[in-house]
Amino acid sequence: MTVLVTGGAGYIGSHTVVELQSAGYEVVVADDLSNAKADVIDRIETITGKRPVFYKIDCADKAALRGVFENHPIDAVIHFAGFKAVGESVQKPLQYYRNNLDSTMTLMEVMEEFDCKKFVFSSSATVYGPNNPYPYKEEMPAIQSSSPYGWTKVMIERILTDYVTAHPDCCAILLRYFNPIGSHESGLLGDDPNGIPNNLMPYIGRVAAGKLEKLTIFGDDYPTPDGTCQRDYLHVVDLAVGHLKALEYAREHEGVEAVNLGTGNGVSVMELVHAFEKANNITLSYVVGPRRDGDLPAFWADASKAQILLGWKATHSVEDMCRSAWDFARNSK
Ligand code: WQD
Predict the structure, then answer these.
(1) Second-level CATH architecture of 2-182+233-262+301-314
(2) Residue 84 Cβ < 6 Å to ligand 1
(3) Among 121, 152, 179, 273, which is best to mutate for testing ligand 1, by the most ligand atoms less than 8 A from CB?
(4) Ligand 1 centroid to 295 CA: how many Å?
(5) In degrees, to the nearest 5, what angle opens at C-alpha 44 toward C-alphas 66 and 119?
(6) Catalytic annotation on 249?
């Protein structure tokens, strides 16, 4: 079976490609490398012994996408490609709507031309918005977000849902990620954003590696046990395996399913900082600064549907996540 992975050179995408290849799938990667490096493909080959087919293309380029489908019998698509920086999306909403929606709808049109009916979508817990109680459950309203980035996820979930309603022999799985961190055990793949990281763990890794002076903890006056925000951190390899399980489900089913991929546990910023220090025997330099706009005090997943529907459960500990994150960060250039 051949799977097209858009954004497959990215953080989550590359880890997913490794799991797909290890499970015997033929993998084709389409990535414009706007937030990934070409050598990730070499690293995937080093890990699995098999080089995925790679196309450096923009998924909004219909002719280029058609070329991929003409050259390969694509049976299913896992769609990661898209802009994903929350803060940047507030500054550049039009670019986010154009890129994320255009690439998705172009991809769906080409899939329809080639009769490809299986779609696994990289969605986000951000679709639950600020008003749902946590732990978040899939049947809660997922109709609001706090940033244009998050709104693109809400809109794409809607587009996929309406499309599958009109084409009931198709299947779309909407995977709602919580906070993926950590790296593949080889230390060859990891969260390596261009520029200054927005997210907590890659920032911690660069402080630990001496590339950034200190971490600023965005607020310790939240209504949480230690005053810092709580999130549901999960190991990126667990997340990647979740995509494999979703693909296996999609192969045998029709319709649309939203599925949370999280651990079901909330961990605070301070807890994660201390866990990283303990797991790696490192003292991190940090200060407490003002809150970051848009941050919610706490949320985590109700992860029961993933276990029931997909037979998936997160298995890695916070210590595993911290140790693997450091194994990657300290080897990064
Ligand atoms: C986690 C906590 C920060 C950096 C975002 C997106 C979500 C998904 C994952 C794309 C928060 C605190 C962070 C720092 C800090 N992205 N923090 N200092 O905001 O939960 O989720 O990334 O799919 O859609 O919303 O993750 O890692 O940015 O922040 O104190 O330098 O760490 O305030 O409490 P977040 P994050």
Answers:
(1) 3-Layer(aba) Sandwich (3.40)
(2) yes
(3) 179
(4) 8
(5) 40
(6) no
Q: What string of pLDDT tens digits covers the 333 residues of the chain?
A: 999 999 999 999 999 999 999 999 999 999 999 988 999 999 999 999 999 999 999 999 999 999 999 999 999 999 999 999 998 999 999 999 999 999 999 999 999 999 999 999 999 999 999 999 999 999 999 998 889 999 999 999 999 999 999 999 999 999 999 999 999 999 999 999 888 999 999 999 999 999 999 999 999 999 999 999 999 999 999 999 999 999 999 999 999 999 999 999 999 999 999 999 999 999 999 999 999 988 999 999 999 999 999 999 999 999 999 999 999 999 987
DSSP string, 120-166: EEEEEGGGGTTTS-SSB-TTS-----SSHHHHHHHHHHHHHHHHHHH
On the CB side of 191, CA atoms within 13 Å amount to 26
Helix (H, G, I), strand (E, B) or coil at 21: helix
